Amino acid sequence: MVTCVNDAMFPDTGKAVVTLLRRLGVDVEFPQAQACCGQPMVNTGYLDEAVPVVRNCVSAFEGYDAVVTPSGSCAGSVRHQHGIVARRAGDPALGAMSDRTYELSEFLVDVLGVTDVGAYFPHTVAYHPTCHSLRMLGVGDRPHQLLRAVRGLRLVDLPKAEECCGFGGTFALKNADTSVAMGSDKARQVVNTGAEVLVAGDNSCLMHVGGLLSRQRSGVRVMHLAEILASTETAA
Amino acid sequence: MSAREEVLARVRAALAGAPTPPAVPPVRSGRPLEELLDRFAERVADYRAVVVRCAEDEVEERIALALDGARTVVPADLPWEVPGAVPDEGFTALELDDLEAVVTAAAVGIAETGTVVLDHGAGQGRRALSLVPDLHVLVVRADQVVAGVPEAVARLDPARPQTWISGPSATSDIELNRVEGVHGPRRLVVVLVGSEVVGRGSTLGGVGTVGGSSASH
Amino acid sequence: MNATFVGMPPFPSAARDALADSQLRGNLAKATGTIRAKRAAVVAEVDDWEELRLAGAALKDRALLDLDSKLVQLEESLTAAGAVVHWARDAEEACRIVASVARDHGVDEVVKVKSMATQEIGLNEHLEAEGIAAWETDLAELIVQLGEDLPSHILVPAIHRNRAEIREIFLRRMAEVGRPAPADLTDEPVELANAARLHLREKFLRAKVAVSGANFAVADSGTLVVVESEGNGRMCLTLPEVLVSVVGIEKVVPTWQDLDVFLQLLPRSSTGERMNPYTSTWSGVTPGDGPQEVHVVLLDNGRTRALADEVGRQALRCIRCSACLNVCPVYERTGGHAYGSVYPGPIGAILNPLLRGVGTDEQVDSLPYASSLCGACFEACPVRIDIPSVLVDLRAQVVDAHRPSAKPEAVAMKAAAWSFGSGARLGVVERLSGVVGGATGRVGRRRLPGGRAALSRVPFGAAWTRSRDLPVPPRESFRAWWKRTDGGRS
């Protein structure tokens, strides 16, 4: 499940996931029927509108052993919100993919059992543990394990890392001022680390913090975890 | 319909079809604490109360030292002699405000939190007595100290009014930092009467701690 | 004169003003930073914190899901202990009961223990209209009252004020209502606390009637519990002849022994202490000790509405510790006033809509959206209220209350649901955005770090691009790439 945001805005992340998983011997498919997990509607209160979106999502992934997604937030939505939509629709089948959907770092560490994915990325990196990865899924230090095994990479500590960046889906638009205030503080913490690259497991949060970092001409670039893990000495 | 009937009817309507109440998962009870009295003394002192440890036959001397000549009120049934103290004869709040100190016994001490509980029974006086004077000398016997809050709650009788005291009066209302000394007694001296366990090899001397220097011995 | 929350604008615009207040931002960042560290330290000391949280949640649920019989039991035990029990359907009725007790004793003033329930019902304003002065005796409440201000935090209503502002308020206002502040008052917290001590002492010593709330009401023993720090609570609960306690019906816990769980959870979550300085418990009247006339007002005021909400009823477990406020990144930046209620922060964002209902007041309807759903509140809550889930459910209730809607957002969601309802339709939309992106990418001069073209202004996208750059949509979506290259295999 590449997610709608990655599909439309960040195709390189999707390609990186494909590269990475194939390198690790996984048979990767991209069902063309997939679109969105339904989170934008559910989180904004549009449950009726979410029903056809979730139905499409569940049917697109029918028959696969595992659904892997480079987004803690979308994985969280599948696991915790599809049930809400199923209740709304009176159709328990809409909760069918919740148990076999994994955020990328969970899939790598827990299912494949790898932390060293053979990556090379000679840069200074700060990791932002996005809220839904951290608190909804509880991915813990899996991303750190993966990053620490990347050759050439220097991982620096991000102070107040566990604090939300302020993206929050439609929160970023409905409460744009508060969202930006939160994001500015996050961006300041990032800049203070001296990192060249801010990495996270969610491109939506990165689009928000990255948009602020860019507006401030900070020079810090944002990258999805998958893109770093897919980098190798030849490809980097 | 009376307000009572209406509120109860609303509650019943709100709960129509509600699930049955869940069972309460078990929580530890009575986690054994080693060196209970040391822990108690250390945690009381953490609140900037003064802790004095002594033997049974030294209590009156320690109380006198802590009072340092202050005009003192005591419950009429206080089991220790406090020379010069006036027994409570139902003083008004204004009269109590003219007195500088109070000495009381206690009901329970809690090691884990450094708390002393008064149930205002024998030797503890009515609630106003231990509230208005600015110095409170509280005498706790070693056998009254329990490990944690659950043990304390189990020992206490809800029918009695209780005052749980953890250090002197304090506030966190200014920038969320704790400051000692608002309306309740600004100085608290806890006299811990240990019959057999007194620290590790220490003699019967008191353990002076930070804060409230004028009341330490 | 009292300030009021009535007529407050919806959260986004109230927040905008607060965010621009640098003094407020500084005060809040400092105070929440302090309390977060303290809480974390004392919670880490407790090995079985998670078990305690589970037990706290279950005990509250046991009371709430059996509330009618628990309330009847509470009434019986209170009455047996000598208390007079009153019931109040709403704020107005509760205020009238308190005022009539005060009038019966011919007083023109009462002293008050800090109480969220009496704030909620606007008791001070009601008493003032009847010619009865209500003196707040908690330090933070005193600061708010003297400053003719509004509370902005559940535990520390004056959290938005720093020591210098507090000094100024004391010097300016204390003399008007009682003993003046010392003329040489500095902004040292110890001196400020002492000024409050002196100012309030005369009020405590002469008061005939006190008003309190209760943190807990124990059904089986008829015991009320007040958890506090300063001793102002003890003063109010002990010295006056008459005590009136306004208690929300959700404050019931089943048994005396259950308090052990809550007296462990509350202080550590609230002020970040192993135990708060003072906890008072009393069951009705004790002959010869404390008030000899004790009234208890059991208050509904929307609680039964919240109880009827299957998802939201868990909010009634709340023990008002304010841990959720202290860890909330939104609250930390906007402060409490932006929430337009005595219950601010994450718990306020769910409690206000639950107590008052959605669909009728724009301000209330804005509250469930005043969160990025980061989940820090749920993690900190000592009774495990899943605030993010309740927020999401309330958002659905807000949307449903306004159906059918022609608001741009509703139209956009319908359009999104259409395009997200099928991969083929999304592909069409992506091709379109790729064409647009290709065109804008060529004319735009902004580059994101790393080289990708960016937009800094987008028609209809101002809410995003006022402060944030936006990457230009790629010319080829992932979906199109997969199709073109057979998933990168060709």
Automatic annotation (TrEMBL), chain C:
**What Pfam families does UniProt report for this protein, alphabetically?**
Fer4_8, LUD_dom
Q: Where is the 4Fe-4S ferredoxin-type domain?
A: 315-385
Which intervals hold domain LUD?
73-299
Q: Which InterPro entries match?
A: 4Fe4S_Fe-S-bd, 4Fe4S_Fe_S_CS, FTHF_cligase-like_sf, Helical_ferredxn, LUD_dom, LutB/LldF, NagB/RpiA_transferase-like
SUPFAM superfamilies for this protein: 4Fe-4S ferredoxins, NagB/RpiA/CoA transferase-like
Quote one Gene Ontology molecular function term. metal ion binding
Which keywords does UniProt give here?
A: 4Fe-4S, Electron transport, Iron, Iron-sulfur, Metal-binding, Repeat, Transport
GO BP field: lactate metabolic process
Q: Does the keyword Metal-binding apply?
A: yes
* Gene3D superfamilies in the cross-refs: Alpha-helical ferredoxin (1.10.1060.10), NagB/RpiA/CoA transferase-like (3.40.50.10420)
Q: What is this protein called?
A: Predicted L-lactate dehydrogenase, Iron-sulfur cluster-binding subunit YkgF
The major lineage groups are: Bacteria, Bacillati, Actinomycetota, Actinomycetes, Propionibacteriales
